[in-house]
Amino acid sequence: MCDSVDEVTQAVLAKNDGLAAGLREELARRGVSVVNLLSSPGSGKTELLGRVLARAVERGLPVAALTADLATENDADRLARSGAPVKQLLTDGLCHLEARQLRGHVEGWLPEGTSLLFVENVGNLVCPASYDLGESLRIVLMAVTEGEDKPLKYPTAFGSAHLVVLTKTDLTGPAGFDEAAFDAHVQRVNPGVEVLRSCARTGVGVDALLERVLAVRDGSPVHRPPLAPRPHSHAHEDAEAGLVP
């Protein structure tokens, strides 16, 4: 029975990998780079993304955003205040986005001339980490209120990130957050990855994050994470055996 379940999982991921590769090529021909944002619920990624989108709009940059949730269009309404084109994707209970869903929502909607598409994935650090969406850049976000050991608890997510963003840094002191320990844990699962500090409330890190994304869009090489989406791997456990050095 376990072998059968594993075979089904492998087949599902293999199909997703193929669709993601095709979508990546298709969007690249259109000059579109996809930024996949992953985090747990409450990390502050919607607020930070809204600030980044607003800054991009101020600069006249051709950006758009697609936000995924199990229910409600609350996040799409919030992001739309930036002035950027935004679309809500409701997963009807699915805990992650897949390449087929992204393709279906991009077709016929993505404004002509868009060069950056931000995808706010479902709030979850387990399943989304295993699904390639055809992205050019995968960013994993975490708030200081979540605890510095989170990279060790979710090694697949943090180990597959091209960039890690620490959010709500204005609460570092009150939360008793150990920045040095956090940095060490991130480097343990993803050696060499950059950790960007941010605070949407004060604007810290907003411009820096936008510049990192634009650099990738313009062809700058990205960090090569050890657990970049691998063919046919899926982690449903918080700590996957053997992934933490």
Supply Rg.
17 Å
Major β-sheet strand ordering: 3-2-4-1-5-6-7
Task: Work out the strand percent.
Answer: 15-25%
Largest sheet composition: 7 strands, parallel
| Overall spatial form | globular
**Residue share in helices?**
25-40%
Question: pLDDT below 50 for ≥5 consecutive residues: which ranges?
Answer: 230-245
- Let me know the average pLDDT: 90
Distance from N terminus to C terminus (CA atoms, Å) equals 31 Å
Counted beta strands: 7
Helical segment tally? 9
Series of H and E elements:
HEHEHEHEEHHEHHEH
Computed structural class: alpha/beta
Put the structure in a nutshell.
By secondary structure, the protein is of the alpha/beta class. 38% of the residues lie in helices and 16% in strands.
Write the layout of secondary structure elements.
Blueprint: H1 2-29, E1 33-38, H2 45-58, E2 63-69, H3 74-80, E3 86-90, H4 99-106, E4 116-120, E5 137-143, H5 150-153, H6 155-159, E6 163-167, H7 172-175, H8 179-189, E7 194-197, H9 206-217
Parallel strand pairs: 1-4, 1-5, 2-3, 2-4, 5-6, 6-7
Main features:
9 helices; 245 residues; 7 strands; 38% helix; 7-stranded parallel β-sheet
Structural write-up:
By secondary structure, this protein is α/β, with parallel strands linked by helices. 38% of the residues lie in helices and 16% in strands. It has 9 helices and 7 strands. The chain has helices at residues 2-29, 45-58, 74-80, 99-106, 150-153, 155-159, 172-175, 179-189, 206-217; strands spanning 33-38, 63-69, 86-90, 116-120, 137-143, 163-167, 194-197. The protein has a 7-stranded parallel β-sheet, sandwiched between helices. Strand 2, helix 3 and strand 3 (86-90) form a beta-alpha-beta unit. Helix 2 (45-58) crosses helix 9. The longest helix has 28 residues, at 2-29. It is globular, with a radius of gyration of 17 Å. Mean pLDDT is 90; it is low at 230-245.
